[in-house]
Specification:
Strand order of the largest sheet: 1-2
Oligomer: single chain
Number of helices: 2
Strand content: 35-45%
Helix content: 25-40%
Number of domains: 1
Structural class: alpha+beta
Shape: elongated
Order of helices and strands: HHEE
Largest sheet: 2 strands, antiparallel
C-alpha cells in the first residue's frame, strides 16, 4: 500500500489533534522523545501526568477529583 504525502499529513494532523483532545501535553511528548533517543531499543515508554486537580473541604469532608493522562508508546510488528 502506497501512501501519498497529503494523506500522510492529514493523518499526522488528526493524530496530533486527538492527542491534544485527550490531554497529552508537550512536556509528555518531549520526555517520551528524549527517552526514545536515549534508549533506542526500548520496547515501550510510559509517561503519566496529572493535568487537573480539584480539592474541596467542607464540614469535615474532603472531596478530591483528578484528571490523569497516561501516554504509552509500544513497539509492535507491522
Amino acid at each position: 500500500m502506497k501512501m501519498n504525502k497529503e494523506e500522510y499529513e492529514k493523518l499526522l494532523k488528526r493524530f496530533a489533534l486527538e492527542l491534544h483532545e485527550v490531554g497529552v501535553t508537550e512536556d509528555m511528548i518531549k520526555l517520551a522523545e528524549a527517552e526514545m533517543e536515549r534508549i533506542p531499543n526500548i520496547a515501550s515508554i510510559s509517561k503519566s501526568e496529572k493535568v487537573c486537580e480539584f480539592t474541596y473541604r467542607h464540614n469535615g469532608y474532603i472531596i478530591e477529583a483528578k484528571t490523569t493522562v497516561d501516554l504509552i508508546i509500544k513497539k509492535c510488528k507491522p
